[in-house]
Amino acid sequence: MKLPSLKIGKFCASFPLIQGGMSVRVSTSALATPVAECGGIGVIGGSGIPSEELNKDIKKAKSATDGVIAVNIMYAMKDFTELVMSSIDAGIDMIITGAGFSRDIFKIGKKYNTPIVMIVSSPPLAKLAERLGASAVIVEAKEAGGHLGTDKPLRELFPAVRDVIKKVPLIAAGGITNGYEMGEMMDKYGADGVQIASRFVLSEECDVADEFKQAYLDAKKEDIVLTSSPVGLPGRALNNPFVKAMNAGEDVSTRKCPYVCIKNCSHLYCINTRLALARDGNTKDGLIFSGENTYKMDKILSVAEIFRQFKKQAESVYKEGRGFRPAV
Ligand SMILES: Cc1cc2nc3c(=O)[nH]c(=O)nc-3n(C[C@H](O)[C@H](O)[C@H](O)COP(=O)(O)O)c2cc1C
C-alpha cells in the first residue's frame, strides 16, 4: 500500500524519508538535491564547515529543486548559532539538530517561521522537544552511524518514544538499509517516516572519495565498532588503523587545535581533521563514521534507484491502519 506523505510544519515530503545529515562535507547539496527531487527530505550536513560555505551550498540546493531541503547542525559546535542564522539567511526549509539539546533554537525557529526537528535518544528528551515546539522528532537508536546517545536498539527504543509523542511526526533512525525495514517501522511500529544515512553514502551522488565508499563496501559485520569522540559521546565507525590505535589507548591527539570547533572538546583527537581525511579518501588515518548495518549493502546506486527500491519494498509490507498514526 502507498505510504503516507510526511508533513513537517508547512513542508510536505511526498515520500516519508529523510536523508540523514552527515557533517564535514559528506552530505552536501550534491546529495541533498536529488533526494529532495525524489520526494524525500534532503539534508545538508552543516557542522564542520564555515558558515559562508554552508550558506552558499544551501542556496545552490534551493535553486536546484522545489523539494524540501534541511540542514543538520550539531548543538555541540561552538558556531552553532552562527550556522543556524546562516542557514536561515540562505532560505533553508527546516533545521534538524542533535548531539546536545538547545532550548534557544525553538525561539529562533518561531521568530523566523522555520520548523525545528530534534534528534533524541530517550523518551524524556522527546517529550521536552515536543513541549518546547519541535515540528517533528527523530528517534536515533544505537544502530546509527556517527555520535550516539543510547545503547538501545531501534526496535526497543522506538516504542518507548512512540508512547510519549502524540502531536508531531515521529521519525525512526538507525540501521535501516532497505525498504522492507522502512515499511516495518511505519506499519508495525507506527513511525511517521524514517531517517537513513549510511545507505546514501553508497550512492553515486554522495560527495565522498571513492575510497570511502569502497571501505563501506568492504566492511564486514565485525569491522563496524564503537569508538570515542572528543565531543564526549560514543561514536560508531569502521575499525581502521586510526580507530584501532585509539581504542587501544594510543595517543592520537593533535598537538595544536586547528579548528577550535567543539564547545567542550576533550582533545582526544581532532574530529574535524579525521573526518575530513576520511572524506577525502585517507581510509587509514581518517574517521569513517558508519551505521551498524553497512555490511548488509553491496552496491553503489543512484539516489533515484535507492528511492525506487525503497518505495517498492516499503509498499509491499505497509498496510495502512496497523500502525499508530498521531493526528498531525
Ligand atoms: C558518515 C556519517 C556522518 C554523520 N554525521 C552526522 C552529523 O553531522 N549530525 C547528525 O546529527 N548525525 C550524523 N550522522 C547520523 C545520521 O544522520 C543518521 O541519523 C544515522 O546514521 C542513521 O543510521 P544509518 O546510517 O544506519 O541509516 C552521521 C552518520 C554517518 C554515517
Short description, anyone?
The protein is of the alpha/beta class. The protein has helices at 29-37, 51-64, 80-89, 104-111, 123-132, 154-162, 179-187, 198-201, 210-218, 241-247, 271-279, 303-317; strands at 6-8, 11-13, 17-19, 41-45, 68-74, 94-98, 116-120, 136-140, 146-147, 170-173, 193-196, 224-228, 234-238. 34% of the residues lie in helices and 17% in strands.
Any descriptors?
single chain, 328 residues, alpha/beta, TIM Barrel, 2 domains, eight-stranded parallel β-sheet, three-stranded antiparallel β-sheet, 12 helices, 34% helix, binds flavin mononucleotide
Bound molecules: flavin mononucleotide
Which class best fits the helix and strand makeup?
alpha/beta
- Tell me the number of helical segments per DSSP (H or I, 4 or more residues long): 12
CATH architecture of the largest domain: Alpha-Beta Barrel
Shape: globular
The SSE order reads EEEHEHEHEHEHEEHEHEHHEEHHH
Share of β-strand residues: 15-25%
Give the tally of β-strands: 13
N-to-C span: 20 Å
Low-confidence sequence ranges: none
Strand order of the largest sheet: 3-11-10-8-7-6-5-4
Q: Quote the average pLDDT.
A: 95
Share of helical residues: 25-40%
The main sheet comes to: 8 strands, parallel
Structural Rg: 18 Å
CATH class of the largest domain: Alpha Beta
Number of domains: 2
CATH topology of the largest domain: TIM Barrel
Task: Determine the CATH superfamily of the largest domain.
Answer: Aldolase class I
